Amino acid sequence: MSRSRNRMIERNSAVRYTGEVIEGNTVRVASPAPDIREREIRRTQIEAVRERSLSMNLRYVLFLTVAAVAVVMICVYYLRLQATSTQLQKKTVSLQTTLKDLKMENDIVYNEILSGVDLEYVREKAMGELGMSYPKQSQIILYDAASSDYVKQYEEIPD
C-alpha cells in the first residue's frame, strides 16, 4: 500500500525524485533532480531580465522621444527633397521640350530664309547695277595666319 501511495505523490507533485521507492519507515531523504534546480535558476534569471527590460526610467523615455522626433524630422526632410527633385525633373522635361520646339521652329525659319534667297538674282544685281566683278588672279593676296580663329587688319590692303 505504501508503494502505490508514493507513486501517486510522485505523479502529482512537480518535483521528480531520483532513486527507488523503499517501503517502510526508513525512507531516505529525496533530493530534487538537477534539471529542476537548473530550471529554477533559469526562471529567476529570466524574471530578472524581464523586470529590467520592463522598467523604463526617465533617461530611457527621453532617449526614445528624441530618437522618434529625429526620425520624423529626417523623414519629413527626405519627403521635401523628393518633392523638390520631382518638381525639378518635371521642369527640366518641360524646358527640354520647349528647347526642342524652338530649335525646330528656328530650323524651319532658317530653311525658309535660305530657300527665299535667289543667289542668281543677287549675282546679277551686284554685277549689273553695282558694277561688281569677280576678282582677278593679280588681286588675290595669300598670307599665312598664325591661328585660324580670326585676323586683325592693322592697315589697308594694297591695290
Characterise this structure.
The protein has two domains: 1-55, no CATH class; 57-127. Helices cover 64% and strands 0% of the residues. It has helices at residues 2-12, 34-54, 58-116, 119-128. The longest helix has 59 residues, at 58-116. It is rod-shaped, with a radius of gyration of 52 Å.
Features of the shown structure:
rod-shaped; mainly alpha; 159 residues; 2 domains; disordered N terminus
Beta-strand share of residues:
under 5%
In helices, the fraction of residues equals: 55-70%
Average pLDDT score: 80
Low-confidence stretches: 1-15
Which shape, going by the Cα principal axes? rod-shaped
What is the terminal-to-terminal distance?
150 Å
- How many domains is the backbone divided into? 2
Rg value: 52 Å
Q: Tally the beta strands.
A: 0
The biggest beta sheet reads: none
How many DSSP helices?
A: 4
Which H/E pattern describes the elements? HHHH
Q: Structural class, from secondary structure content? A: mainly alpha
List the SSEs and their pairings:
Blueprint: H1 2-12, H2 34-54, H3 58-116, H4 119-128
Task: Summarize it.
The protein has helices at residues 2-12, 34-54, 58-116, 119-128.
